[in-house]
Amino acid sequence: MQNAQVREIRPACTPFAPRRILVVEDDRHDQERIRRLFRYLTTEVILDFATAIADARQRLQKVPPQAIVLDNGLPDGLGIDLALELSRSPASAETPTFIISDWPSPFMHEKAEAAGVHAVFCKSEFGARQAFEILRRMNCSDLQLARSVRQKEKRPTQASVISREWAGPES
């Protein structure tokens, strides 16, 4: 009994831990757009950008994120293939993963469902509502500003419809 180890279980987001999102996106313009969207919603998230799958793998080994956002078309492969790989790894299988694609196809949605991807978003329609969905899936409790932004948006976009359709049984 003296050598028993006590393990503290903490949720993915706590007021004391930095919230980190790994964004794998090779286009600088899209990186800046994503950065501005998250800054609009909250200043308490660290965005870590990778421009390729190899770079993302290195960053995942250094500091595990609370969420992963993958562009599907990357210079060294497909984001959906990385999502499948991550879903098989004990270290990242529970991390909420999202795909952003220029042209989300039915085949991509099938692979996303197999990989446990939380949502597939159309890149051209990625906005505050979709960024809020990512923050919500990170189980952060201090999103008052984000909630007020969400309430102001009344009309669902194509991307939000896609995310509800492919987000899995939790939706």
TrEMBL record:
<dbReference type="GO" id="GO:0000160">
    <property type="term" value="P:phosphorelay signal transduction system"/>
</dbReference>
<feature type="domain" description="Response regulatory">
    <location>
        <begin position="20"/>
        <end position="138"/>
    </location>
</feature>
<protein>
    <submittedName>
        <fullName>Response regulator</fullName>
    </submittedName>
</protein>
<dbReference type="Pfam" id="PF00072">
    <property type="entry name" value="Response_reg"/>
</dbReference>
<keyword id="KW-0597">Phosphoprotein</keyword>
<dbReference type="InterPro" id="IPR011006">
    <property type="entry name" value="CheY-like_superfamily"/>
</dbReference>
<dbReference type="InterPro" id="IPR050595">
    <property type="entry name" value="Bact_response_regulator"/>
</dbReference>
<feature type="modified residue" description="4-aspartylphosphate">
    <location>
        <position position="71"/>
    </location>
</feature>
<dbReference type="InterPro" id="IPR001789">
    <property type="entry name" value="Sig_transdc_resp-reg_receiver"/>
</dbReference>
